[in-house]
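Technical annex, item 7. During the second reporting period the consortium partners agreed on a shared format for inverse folding records so that results from different sites could be compared directly. Each record opens with the tokenized structure and is followed by the designed sequence. A conforming record, contributed by the partner at site C, is shown below for reference.
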């Protein structure tokens, strides 16, 4: 016999087996016991929450020869016929593939015939929101005044797409997402029946990943059992199968981002990619981690809601002291936007890298949350005893040093002629530079170093990282020297995030003409004295 998937094998056959929808089950059973059955029902809710399952159980219950407390007995001929899919009284229709007017007109014609056996003909129309406007109109009259022996059950995941004229003719039941505890208990129950050993931590992770869908949880469990067949399912094995990341990695990443360490964030992402983790799941889980962090920081007694272990809760409480609410909310906003983009991206890794850089470099954004994060980074450096502008240090092999002096650089009395020539041709130098250097130089400007050499002030972030790479500064020196007609030494400078660079490093493109005019006026005054 062929293998049957878990979600089909353990599909509830009676109301007692349905988990997580007690408010709906109780109402339907009471209607059956009181013989107050409606003619049209609308079941709406997210996928895998039991809409079609309860519709089939309800169809059996209203036709059952020996119902027990409003639930089908499962033993009579009609119950067995419906369970086997052989009953002419229960008609299932997939509106996604049968959404035309003609398909609905066939139903309208069929309802005129009474059931061959049992009391009711039950039409279950799944994904009803896929019907065309014409099909809805064709269904409208029959839905309003069907024969006494006909029941319509409409199921949908997108209730907002259903016309109000249809909604007003149905009893509406909203299916809730199933809780993590309910899904976990069901998974434990089924793994015991299947004789599968699984860690509690692994069960809860599968339940959380299912996002309120019992069917998704069973499918994920099925996938994990198949991958590690005959072995105990540990938390780490489940993470491997689902391409997920341990929460310890999110703690490391958060601390790296709070430090503004772009290199560390990219290196950690490289580690995650090499482990074969799914980036879409990684972004979603990191967002969820930050959500838990925000709840820990803003609410008391939140342990039962965030659903984490004692060890992880202690880590979250420690990290909650490291970041302000605005900073965490900024991270969540950026990652939420990324979650919407990454699903359709062909270069997922590059997209994630860009957003990690954005997290580390709040100076790349101008909104209030980013400004708060920039101030936090600045305060953190001050508290740590790190100067806002640090002095020159020895370069690491293969990289270029970018100076960060602590005070305003004084201009010499006379700007050297070769520097002046280069400044006058700065626009031409930028236009002649190759990409991407050209793009980074458009936001840069020339100034003077203390030794009289040319100082190029570049923006923090990608521009400064670009010029740190070996050979980039030499390439720029050659370009400037060609325009000046003389060899010019160039020093690269990155100002501190949030600081006004021109207050520390004067822009020569604005000052060189002023210097020239001042010198000419002095010469004219001297000549007049003779």
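Designed sequence (site C submission):
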């Amino acid at each position: 016999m062929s293998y049957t998937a878990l979600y089909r094998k353990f599909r509830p056959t009676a109301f007692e087996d349905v988990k997580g929808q007690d408010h709906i089950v109780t109402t339907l059973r009471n209607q059956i016991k009181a013989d107050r059955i409606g003619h049209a029902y609308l079941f709406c809710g997210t996928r895998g929450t039991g809409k079609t399952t309860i519709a089939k159980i309800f169809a059996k219950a209203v036709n059952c020869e020996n119902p027990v407390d409003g639930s089908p007995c499962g033993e009579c001929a009609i119950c067995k016929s419906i369970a086997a899919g052989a009953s002419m009284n229960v008609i299932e229709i997939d509106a996604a593939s049968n959404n035309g007017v003609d398909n609905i007109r066939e139903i309208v014609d069929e309802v005129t015939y009474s059931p061959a056996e049992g009391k009711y003909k039950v039409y279950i129309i799944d994904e009803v929101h896929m019907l065309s406007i014409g099909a809805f109109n064709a269904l409208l009259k029959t839905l309003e005044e069907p024969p006494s022996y006909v029941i319509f059950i409409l199921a949908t995941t997108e209730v907002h797409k259903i016309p109000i004229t249809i909604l007003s003719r149905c009893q509406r039941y909203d299916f809730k997402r199933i809780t993590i505890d309910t899904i976990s208990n069901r998974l434990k129950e089924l793994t015991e029946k299947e004789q599968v050993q699984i860690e509690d931590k692994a069960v809860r992770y599968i339940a959380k990943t299912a996002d309120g869908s019992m069917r998704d949880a069973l499918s994920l469990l099925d996938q994990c059992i198949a991958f590690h067949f005959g072995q105990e399912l540990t938390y780490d094995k489940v993470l491997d199968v689902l391409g997920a990341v341990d929460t310890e990695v999110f703690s490391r990443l958060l601390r790296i981002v709070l430090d503004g360490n772009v290199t560390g964030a990219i290196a950690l992402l490289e580690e995650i990619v090499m482990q074969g983790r799914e980036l879409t799941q990684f972004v979603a889980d990191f967002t969820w981690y930050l959500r838990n962090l925000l709840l820990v920081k803003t609410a008391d007694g939140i342990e039962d809601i965030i659903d984490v272990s004692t060890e992880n809760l202690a880590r979250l409480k420690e990290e909650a002291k490291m970041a302000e609410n605005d900073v965490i909310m900024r991270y969540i906003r950026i990652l939420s936007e990324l979650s919407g983009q990454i699903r359709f991206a062909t270069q997922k890794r590059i997209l994630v890298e860009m957003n990690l850089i954005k997290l580390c470099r709040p100076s790349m954004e101008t909104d209030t949350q980013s400004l708060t994060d920039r101030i936090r980074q600045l305060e953190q450096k001050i508290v740590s005893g790190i100067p806002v502008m640090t002095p020159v240090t020895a370069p690491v092999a293969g990289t270029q040093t970018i100076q960060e002096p602590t005070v305003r650089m004084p201009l010499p009395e006379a700007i050297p002629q070769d520097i002046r020539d280069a400044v006058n041709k700065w626009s031409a130098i930028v236009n002649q530079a190759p990409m991407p250097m050209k793009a980074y130089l458009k936001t840069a400007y020339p100034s003077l170093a203390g030794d009289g050499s040319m100082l190029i002030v570049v923006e923090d972030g990608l521009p400064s990282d670009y010029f740190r790479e070996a050979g980039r500064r030499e390439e720029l020196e050659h370009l400037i020297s060609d325009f000046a007609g003389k060899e010019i030494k160039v020093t690269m400078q990155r100002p501190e995030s949030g600081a006004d660079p021109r207050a520390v490093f004067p822009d020569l493109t604005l000052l060189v003409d002023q210097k020239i005019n001042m010198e000419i006026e002095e010469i004219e005054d001297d000549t007049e004295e003779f």
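The radius of gyration is 35 Å. The chain has a mean pLDDT of 81. All partners now use this format for quarterly exchanges.
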